Every structure is written in structure tokens, then in C-alpha cells.
């Protein structure tokens, strides 16, 4: 494999910084903070979980609509970094602003969370697109896995600091309320995210691009139209996206709603935070392992393994009752969470025409984000209808099964005839 280059390391290090958002805001501290705020306002547990699901669906819908359009424009020389910077700034700013929202205003919390999530997920669209600029097809699965593994390792540091502050505040060892301790966690997240994004801004640049020819917005819409007209040339790519649409739905839903789900089951805050911390620690080596095994057995086979593990997770969730059960479930998720995401990104990266990488990663985003609408809505509807959140998690099984079946129809990247670029308009 050889040593990682400065560009590969700088790209992967962004995951070290931005993953603090994923664990502290998406998965752990913010959901607990929000659930506590909603409960204090008299909102029923199942309803507040549903509102969180609806919120996730709203911001993912917005980004899904913008993804291919912005991605197509970003393929022009010098545009990728500009779009990345805008969404990065949006995400960081509203993550920090979460610390200043009044505790009793759960609705404003969700609004700020929506804007922070738009920034974080939007930046990731262009961050993912940069993978074709920093490495080769041969190294892509290893570099992608390295990004996720660094993310899991790096995110444990600000997460651990936040947990310690929250727990010490809860035991009145330090002169802070639990509310303000959580707010400090939001500020730590924003600071950590900024600090470890600096190498990407300095060392990662757009190598593959399209020269501007007239109005870039008009030309981008023409290119999108041509892509759809010539869809047969990208059959393998879009077949993969269809499979990805289904299985990543379940992955994203479990990640974003796991804490709210555990809270509804009566699990205490300390136990939830410790489980989530352990999940990050375990997920890091497994992300690397998936990357190494993909080199030996192929990315597609390892994706099968990850999907099957998630099917087991959804079935086991039905019987979840105690903190021990939650630990078992979390460790199962940890074994495949990073691997399935990393290999999906690298598998797709090998299929896309390099000059149009952002346009196609925009489609990657739209399929992933539309899936993220369906999953939370499914959980939300089921939770409200049955009054039990675990039935909503179980309903995700069908999505993993469909994804598995479609994935079996996708050829390996080395079996696909490459398309150098989208046909000229």
C-alpha cells in the first residue's frame, strides 16, 4: 500500500474533526438535550422522537434537492472548495449557536439543529467528492476506510471531554448545571471541527474539473439533462445507487435516532453516553478491518457482510429491554457502521467519471438523503402508531433486504467499462 500522501492524510483528517459533530450533535449529547427540553415542555416521549424524525426528514429533503445541482456546478474549476467552505461555515456556526438557545425552547433547538445539519451534511457531499482528487482507484477503499477510522478515533476525544463535563456537572462536582455542561459540549464540537479542517483547506485541491464554458449554472443543468439522457452508460452506477438508497436508509436512521430510541426505553443518560463512547472506540478498528478485507475479498462482499449485520441489529432491537441489551446492539452496530459507509463511498468513487465526480456525488447524496427521509418517517409513524419505538427500528429490516438484493445485481468496478466524462451538450 505504501505511506499515505499529504493530500490523503489531510483529506482523512477532516473526518477526525467533523465526526465530533456526528457523535455529539447527531447521535449523543444533542438528542438527549433535546429530549430533556421537550419533556420539560410537556411533550410525550414518542411524540418528541417523532418530531426529531420529521426534522431529520425536512433537512435531508432540502439537501437532497440541492445535491445534484450544486454538485454539477462544483465540477467546474475552483468551485468545489467554495461550496465546501460555505456549507462547512454554516454547519460550524449553527452548531455553536445551539449552545445559546434557551433550554425551554425545544422548537428553536430543532430549527438550529436543522441548519447545523444542512451545513454538516452539505459539506460532506463535497468532502466525499474530493476523494477522487486525493488518491487513485487502487488506494480508494483503503483511504476511504482510513477517513472513517480516523473519524471514530478523533471524535472520541471531544466526546469524552463532553461526557466528563456533563457527568461531573450532574454529580455537582463542578459548578455547572447539566444544561450548561451540554452547551459546552456543543462549543467543543464546533471548535474541534474547525481546528482539524485546516489541513484540508491548505493541502486538498480540485484536480479533476471541467473548464467553464458560458454560464456555469445553465451549463450545469444541461449536463444534468445529458446525464439522464445517457443513463444507459451509467447503468452499474445507478443500480448501485438504488441499492445504496435502501440499505443506507437503515444505517443513517439507526445512527441519528439511536439515542432517542434508548431514552424512550428508559435507559439513563450516563449509560447511553458510555455505550456511545464504546461504540466509537470499537468502530475505528473495524472500519480499517473492512478496508483491508475489501482488498482481499472485494468491497461488494464486505458490503454484504455489513448489511447482514444490520439486519440482525433490527431484529434484535425488538427484544431490547435492558442496558445490557443496548450494549450488545451497539457493539453489533460498531462492527459494521464505519465499514459499510467507507466501502460504499469508495465503491461509488471507482464507478464515477472523475471530471464529473461532484455531479455524481450529488446523486450519491440525493439517493442517500432521500433514503434518510424515508427511514426516520417510517420510525416516526410506527412509533406514534404503536407507541413503541422498537417496532419502528424493526420495520427497517425490509430496507436492508431490498438493498441486499439489488446490490447483488451490481457488477464489480473492474467489470464496468469506464465513462470518462458526461457526454457534451
Q: Compute the average pLDDT.
A: 81
Q: Share of helix among residues?
A: over 70%
DSSP strand count: 0
- Global shape: globular
Which strand-content bin applies to the residues? under 5%
In angstroms, what separates the terminal alpha carbons? 39 Å
Largest beta-sheet details: none
* CATH homology superfamily name: MFS general substrate transporter like domains
Rounded to an integer in angstroms, the radius of gyration calculated over CA atoms is 21 Å
Number of domains in the coordinates? 1
Structural class: mainly alpha
Describe this structure in words.
The protein has helices at 6-27, 29-40, 45-74, 79-97, 106-129, 131-134, 140-170, 178-195, 198-203, 216-229, 235-264, 269-297, 299-317, 323-351, 357-386, 389-394, 397-407. It has 425 residues and is mainly α. It has a single domain (6-205, 218-413), classed as MFS general substrate transporter like domains (Growth Hormone, Chain: A), CATH 1.20.1250.20. The radius of gyration is 21 Å and the shape is globular. The protein starts with 5 loop residues before the first helix and ends in an 18-residue tail after the last helix. Residues 420-425 have low confidence and may be disordered. Residues 236-425 form the Major facilitator superfamily (MFS) profile domain. It is found in: Cell membrane.
Task: Describe this structure in a few short sentences.
Keywords: Membrane, Transmembrane, Transmembrane helix, Transport. By secondary structure, the chain is mainly alpha-helical.
